[in-house]
Amino acid sequence: MKPNPLPPEHDAPASLDDVIRTNRDHTRLYLSTAAELAALRGAIPSQPIKGEIGDWCFITLLISETQERFLYLTGTNLADHSSCMTSKVTVINGHAAMTKSGSIYALAGDPSTAPDLPYICATLNLWGIGPRFGVPPYFF
Asked: Bigger pLDDT: 128 or 12?
């Protein structure tokens, strides 16, 4: 599902860093680092794959006060060619990622460095955390 476009008076985010516009001293959003990804390396149970994700990347929402990191997988769901963003990723291996909800996603092709910013904004707003951080008002 594509998010609704922004009204003309709002600026679309230019980067992941630009998605967070207020309370920037409390949180950051960025492409996950190699060290963050390495910390989640592990075995993924053998169970059905929920989806195959292309043009994928892992992004991190860092809460500054607690140094808590939430890593998410975002990209294109190859089954319906729509943007997607998972719940918190808990385990990564070379070709798949498992989320906190237990869903497993296959990683297709090479990683991307250009995530769908409006979709990420809409997802953070849907989850209810967007307004706290001044995320541009994209909605589904």
From this structure: 128
**CA 40 and chain centroid, separation:** 15
Dist CA 92 CA 111 (whole Å)? 13
Instruction: Provide the token pair at 118.
Output: 């409006």
Are 29 and 59 within 8 A, CB to CB?
yes
For residue 131, the 8-state DSSP code is G
Going by the DSSP 8-state scheme, the letter that residue 41 receives in this structure is B
**Three-state DSSP class for 79?**
coil
Q: What is the pLDDT of residues 53-70, one digit of tens each?
A: 999 999 999 998 899 999
Two tokens, residue 27: 């949180």
pLDDT value of position 23: 86
